[in-house]
Amino acid sequence: MSGAAWSQFAALIALLLLTAPPLGRYLAAVYGDAGRAPGDRVFLPVERAVYRLCRVDAGREQRWTGYALSLLAFSLVSFLLLYALLRLQGVLPLNPVGLPGVAPNVAFNAAVSFVTNTNWQSYGGEYTMSHLSQMAGLTVQNFVSAAAGMAVMAALVRGLARRRAATVGNFWVDLTRGTVRVLLPLSFALAVVLAGQGVVQNLSGHTAAATLEGARQLIPGGPAAGQVAIKQLGTNGGGFFDMNSAHPFENPTPLSNLVENWAILVIPFALAFAYGHLVGDRRQGRAVFAVMAVVWAGMSVAAMALETAGNPRLDALGVDQAAGYLEGKETRFGAAASGLWAASTTGTSNGSVNAMHDSLTPMGGGTALIHMMLGEVSPGGAGVGLNGLLVMAVLAVFVAGLMVGRTPEYLGKKIQAAEMKLVVLYLLAMPTVLLGFAAASSVLDTALASRSAEGPHGLTEILYAYASAANNNGSAFAGLDSTTYWYTTTLGLAMLVGRFLLIIPVLAIAGSLARKQPAPATAGTLPTHTLLFGGLLIGVVVVVAGLTFLPALALGPIVEHLSL
């Protein structure tokens, strides 16, 4: 890789190291049990107004079952309202282009997608959604779906930190505080920065312009900057425009590209530091951060190197690839920045793209696919990434306990049969729908007809789609036509499983651990803040994913790479 590529990588790392720790301290204050946090004078009146309006008793905490039911009820109502808005947008205001209501199957898929924080888009943004649908529907879900994920994280951490407690917090309070105190202020500031860089922010429809050749061109407008800000910060990823962050109206400059890439990563990394503060041991937070950072950095360097190295077949033809492999990439960013973004967006549940992933090199696209298959724990989505890594930590201490013949413990809490059953349910849910639906799509003629290529690349397109849906990512190998009833339905079901059949076991683990009394550390206790445990945790993450997905990967991106 070139010096410029390494400089981009170093600049992003520096920004994260400067901003993630202080943001983590702030997040710990927001979700902590102290009840006080910076900005109370501004935010408390807003929160109290929300509680009064929604008749929420902010002082009453919930058991994990009540917390889960509140989350499910909120998500169901959000889905129904969003679905209705999309179907009726043709007769609603703020529709300057006169777009019709969204088709039933696409509306179902989009509503599920945004409620689950996936933001998979089986439609072209500016050609399908009115300004009202974008602002009152999709953008609102960008905020609350991310806040819901962070709320579940807060409940899990309380379960680890509390002693003999029956409750894990109040979902409605956590949802409100995450939205009002974290996502709204950060998004407002980022939207101003992006608008300053040239990201569109208006209520215009299409502006007609004449090209130099005399043709008529329609230039889209709309409130993009506000949605782009929260789509990155909330690890949502759904683009206002069809081309997502490859579109110059969403991501016009190299500086906006760096800032948006930072925004994708900063909250998930900051939550690792918040975790250390919340459990009263900052070493735990630093250990989790280190594991996240090592995996993300490794995948980033791999993706950047693969895309800058180019295609060996083109080398054999004498094609100059000094700038890297540029098919499907924006020249204002280049191959290295496209690879770095691909690693960041698939290591989180973001899914936004600044290049077309279907045009990445076989192992460049394979790296993005593998990163999702790791469970998006490096650093993962807003809240859910930390949840996933902590579940893996529980599995790691269980494996360590088996090796030395001790009852496994994590933060002093004994890990017993009840917790391990929930961990197994968590680990099986995502692969089951990913491989199950991918297998079905590989033999059904109607599903196979949606591929843009046959052979290994066609299989990779299918695998990538279900990996993205089941991990609530949302990025795509866009050569696959996902607008058919088969794909809109099965991808929607995969999103629901990937969201709720992971969140519910996490909350159950939180409730189980909260009831336990921590045991005092002894000479035989496995420290979970050390380099040794960090290596074990990375090994568990890699081995679980490898044993589950390596056969499918061997038939897709690996064999395609070997055929070059």
From TrEMBL:
The keyword Protein biosynthesis does not apply. GO terms for molecular function: P-type potassium transmembrane transporter activity; potassium ion binding. It is found in: Cell membrane. InterPro entries: KdpA. It is a multi-pass membrane protein. The chain crosses the membrane at residues 67-86, 140-161, 182-200, 262-280, 287-306, 382-402, 423-444, 485-510, 531-554. One of its GO terms (cellular component) is plasma membrane. Keywords: Cell membrane, Ion transport, Membrane, Potassium, Potassium transport, Transmembrane, Transmembrane helix, Transport. HAMAP family: KdpA. Part of the high-affinity ATP-driven potassium transport (or Kdp) system, which catalyzes the hydrolysis of ATP coupled with the electrogenic transport of potassium into the cytoplasm. This subunit binds the extracellular potassium ions and delivers the ions to the membrane domain of KdpB through an intramembrane tunnel. The system is composed of three essential subunits: KdpA, KdpB and KdpC. Belongs to the KdpA family. This is Potassium-transporting ATPase potassium-binding subunit. It comes from Streptomonospora mangrovi. The gene is kdpA.
